[in-house]
UniProtKB/TrEMBL annotation:
Full protein stretch here: 250 to 567 of 568
Keyword Transferase: yes
Entry keyword Transmembrane: no
Protein name, entry field: Phosphoenolpyruvate-protein phosphotransferase
Major site of localization recorded for this protein: cytoplasm
Length: 318
């Protein structure tokens, strides 16, 4: 039975006490989205729209964008699809948008910040998202990457709402955003934590440098403290705070995240079966205990080991 559970996933994901955890997929293209739907994802928690810009020297036309987004929306009729506006720069440079000469690209004009130098690109993208949204039944939410301040969140929400889209959100992937989540969620309807960048910026360890492996670890207690802070900011506003970074694909860490108050998880589709299999064996009480254990551990290794000891099901799943 367990082996079967690991091969495939069919939703919804209900914990032992009936608590429901929406499991969504991270996708970049229409083809990804169709594969994610076939793998059982309930929706898209992260559409990395820069994928439809990546091999281009010029901004894609509105028609090209509408078609690309529409292909993804079509794969999830009636379901939630979270569209992230273009996240260029640093590890994803784009010739027409980012400056290759920046001394520290990860700290430079990337993500939402490219709207400072190229406001029209962001505006035209949001127009295209709104047009594609109007032609499909998927429930479209739009979020901005690399938000660092309340001012940015407010300006982004205004831009999204002014295009007739009702639900604006921000990624929490910069430590300042995690610390300010309560205030940010007074401006936008939801947040999603990007643990890849949140870990990079919290630990000051370039995510592209494999040599820094033990620093680039979302189990680092400092990262967990920021995630909990972000989740609490959501709870205080009655707003949902999900996770769409790689951390959501780690079954033990997924339990910790849910125990910290994270309301949905989005991951690579191949991670869905294992994450669901483990979440289905625990209740919120145990998830909170796992979260407390991880949160109070002094090191990443102790956090991992402590949680593993509370979840023997992990050994069964291999
Ligand atoms: C993240 O930073 O965790 C994230 C989900 O975004 P990306 O990996 O695309 O930067
Ligand atoms: Mg990121």
């Amino acid at each position: 039975e367990r082996a079967a559970a690991l091969r495939s996933y069919t939703g919804p994901c209900l914990m032992q006490d009936g608590h429901r955890v929406p499991l969504r997929a991270n996708v970049g293209t229409g083809e990804d989205a169709r594969r994610a739907a076939a793998a059982g994802a309930e929706g898209v928690g992260l559409l990395r729209t820069e994928f439809c810009f990546l091999d281009r020297d010029t901004e894609p036309s509105r028609e090209v964008q509408v078609a690309a987004y529409g292909e993804v929306f079509a794969a999830f009729p009636g379901r939630k699809v979270v569209v992230r506006t273009i996240d260029a720069g640093a590890d994803k440079p784009l010739p027409f948008l980012t400056n290759a000469d920046e001394p520290n690209p990860a700290l430079g004009v990337r993500g939402y910040r490219t709207g400072r130098t190229h406001p029209g690109v962001l505006e035209r993208q949001i127009e295209a998202i709104a047009e594609a949204a109007a032609a499909h039944t998927a429930e479209i939410q739009v979020m901005a990457p690399m938000i660092a301040t309340v001012d940015e969140a407010r300006a982004f929400a205004d831009l999204v709402h002014s295009h007739g889209l009702t639900t604006a959100g921000v990624m929490i992937e910069v430590p300042s955003a995690a610390l300010m989540s309560q205030e940010l969620l007074g401006e936008v309807e939801f947040a999603s934590i990007g643990t890849n960048d949140l870990t990079q910026y919290t630990m000051a360890a370039d995510r592209l440098l494999g040599d820094l492996g033990e620093l680039s670890d979302p189990w680092q207690p400092a990262v967990l403290k920021l995630i909990r802070e972000a989740a609490m900011g959501g709870a205080l506003n009655g707003a949902s705070v999900g996770v769409c970074g790689e951390a959501a694909a780690d079954p033990a860490l997924a339990v910790v995240l849910v125990g910290m108050g994270i309301t949905s998880l989005s991951m690579s589709p191949r991670a869905l079966p294992a994450v669901a299999a483990v979440l289905r064996t625990v209740d919120m009480r145990l998830a909170k205990r796992c979260a407390g254990t991880a949160f109070n551990a002094p090191t990443a290794a102790e956090a991992r080991e402590g949680v593993r000891a509370l979840l023997p099901v992990l050994d069964e799943l291999g």
